[in-house]
UniProtKB/TrEMBL annotation:
Keywords: Hydrolase. This is Deoxyguanosinetriphosphate triphosphohydrolase-like protein. It comes from Clostridium saccharobutylicum DSM 13864. Pfam families: HD, HD_assoc. It comes from the Bacteria.
């Protein structure tokens, strides 16, 4: 028995029967030989961490554009916080931690520079719209590894593409995917409140009193409330033969109201309007430039233009850029160079 088989045997002893067992995975689009040490979900996790798209997350905005402080979240630190929350929940229920971690680490690979503003710009540009969850799936299936994709398992790809929004979970094929979907909201709501207070754009006293009463008045209390409620509610469901994981009605409604508050006052409110408009201008100019000069994009995107059309190729290129790279390109293309006459 090799190490992978020992891990799979351990899964059979420790996970609930409703969990996703690596030995029963739906597999990959291109069949591969099993690893001797790692389960298929461990392999997926490692491929995501080693990808270029994952490394670029450290220079992509979570909420605040080009912040000067070291302690504001980036898209990378958000991703790590989601993985932390989701794994804690998974352990509490008895689900597959490795699958949870792989989905969590890959869920935002397709997010655009400049946070929600970048997605808004590409959504208005690309025919049929642009959604970061679909782009994340496109990254791992097509764009990474020089256009070959990462050949991940179906369970991980399904969790990535269905992580976004607060709607139905009927399209998610594993309970682990549902855990990541909700953990994403738990993580960003709490750390975005923390960052907003640090930036002086929100006071703790501004948060709706009813929500504070239910969830708690600081990040630690809110996360503890959400995580414990998710575990308790899910374990109750499983124990009673209901294959559903999630929050109780009261806690879920409170989280939805908190999300609405943050979208109205921070994400889409007037607080960051000036910075959002600057980002929109930069991205719009870059889109126009590469539409007129597609051959200046890297070869992989030129190839996409030839096979899938100009919009798709430009959108893929723009979506992959970090905030820093967008600014660098904008300056290189549009800002006049200073010539000093000595």
């Amino acid at each position: 028995m090799n190490i992978r088989e020992k891990i799979q045997s351990f899964e059979s002893l420790t996970l609930i029967k409703e969990a996703a067992f690596s030995s029963n995975s739906l597999g990959r689009k291109i069949k591969e030989k099993d690893d001797d040490i790692r389960t298929c979900y461990m392999v997926d996790r490692d491929r995501i961490i080693q990808s270029k798209s994952f490394r670029r997350l450290k220079h992509k905005t979570q909420v605040y554009i080009k912040t000067s402080g070291d302690h504001y979240r980036t898209r990378l630190t958000h991703t790590l916080e989601v993985a932390q929350v989701a794994r804690n929940i998974g352990v509490g229920i008895g689900l597959n931690e490795n699958l949870i971690e792989a989905i969590a680490l890959g869920h935002d690979l397709g997010h655009v520079a400049f946070a929600h503003t970048g997605e808004e710009v590409l959504n208005g540009y690309l025919e049929g719209g642009f959604r970061h969850n679909e782009q994340s799936a496109r990254v791992v299936t097509k764009l990474e590894n020089d256009g070959k994709g990462l050949n991940l398992t179906q369970e991980v790809i399904n969790g990535i593409i269905n992580h976004s929004g607060l709607g139905t979970v009927k399209d998610i094929i594993t309970l682990e995917g549902v855990v990541v979907k909700v953990s994403d909201k738990m993580a960003y709501l709490n750390h975005d409140i923390d960052d907003s207070i640090r930036a002086g754009l929100l006071r703790k006293e501004d948060l709706p009193k009813d929500i504070v009463r239910i969830l708690g008045d600081n990040s630690t209390e809110r996360l503890n409330t959400l995580i414990k409620d998710f575990i308790k509610t899910s374990n109750f469901n499983i124990k009673n033969g209901i294959k559903e994981v999630g929050l109780s009605k009261e806690i879920n409604e409170a989280m939805i109201e908190l999300r609405k508050y943050m979208f109205k006052n921070i994400y889409l409110g007037n607080t960051l309007k000036v910075e959002r408009n600057k980002a929109k201008f930069i991205l719009s100019q870059l889109i126009k430039y590469f539409e007129n000069n597609p051959n200046e994009m890297p070869d992989i995107y030129v190839d996409i233009v030839e096979k899938e059309g100009l919009q798709r190729g430009v959108a893929d290129y723009i979506a992959g850029m970090s905030d820093d790279y967008c600014l660098l390109l904008f300056n290189r293309i549009f800002v006049p160079k200073v010539v000093i006459d000595l």
